[in-house]
């Protein structure tokens, strides 16, 4: 084999390496900014991610990169890092029983304005499932239905706003709901579905960081969906957030938690109704 044949076709850049001190600094900065506590298994991956981001930002060391983001809270690099470290796993009608509970709850309030906050909406499957459920339950009988869909991850929010999904992602949606609420893509969009505009118009998408000292929220909600997100925060952070949710719920309002989340021992502001659904105490 000659030299040219032995050489790789293209060479990967040598990324700056993160040492233990860099990792500690990064984990602390991320936790302060987002509340996310990185598990041990993620810390290895974090080193490579930081090296990659430092390289892309034109820096020769992870240390230099960390100093830059620590000193510049408004840097767009933060959005990249937050996207890299958030877990966006979600699905349409995930934990189906919650949508049955929401449907019953909405039917009982058919003639009143209804508003729901989906506070970790990821790529949009959850707020669209909420809006479809509200529309199915109340239909035209209720003109005042709205959903606030928020997340810390601006890249996930951008995908959510588009409301375009592969057929594979849309598989949990019942066929009649798919027909009623989605348009099928054609040509270059074949194999994709897009949420119909009248459902998208029910939803306002907004960047909200749950650990920020104040939230840009000026209304009360009939329900708050905060599912599969608190598990990434430590207990004091979870308690603080729950105590701030309580006054944002209208009387009789519901708080939906993820299937593996238990808020009972964190605060007495909420009482478990069942199936990881809570009401203000
Ligand atoms: C695993 S997803 C859950 C999505 C959806 N709630 C569900 O149950 O299918 C967790 C979401 O929480 C968001 N998140 C993490 N930290 C956050 C914070 N401090 N404020 C707001 N959203 C956050 C992530 O960006 C991610 O989209």
Short structural description:
The radius of gyration is 22 Å and the shape is globular. The protein has helices at 3-6, 20-34, 40-56, 62-71, 76-85, 96-107, 125-138, 154-162, 175-181, 197-200, 235-245, and strands at 114-118, 145-151, 164-166, 182-184, 192-195, 203-207, 221-226, 249-257, 270-274, 277-280.
- Give the structural class: alpha/beta
By CATH, the superfamily of the largest domain comes out as: Vaccinia Virus protein VP39
Distance between the termini: 76 Å
- Amount of helix: 40-55%
Description of the structure:
The protein has 281 residues and is of the alpha/beta class. The protein folds into 2 domains: 83 residues, Chemotaxis Receptor Methyltransferase Cher, domain 1 (Orthogonal Bundle); 156 residues, 3-Layer(aba) Sandwich (Rossmann fold). 40% of the residues lie in helices and 18% in strands. Strands 6-2-1-7-8-10-9 form a 7-stranded mixed β-sheet, covered by helices on one side. The protein has a 3-stranded antiparallel β-sheet with strand order 3-5-4. Strand 4 and strand 5 form a beta hairpin. Helix 2 runs parallel beside helix 4, helix 3 crosses helix 4 and helix 6 runs parallel beside helix 7. The chain is globular, with a radius of gyration of 22 Å. It starts with a helix and ends with a strand. S-adenosylmethionine binds next to loops.
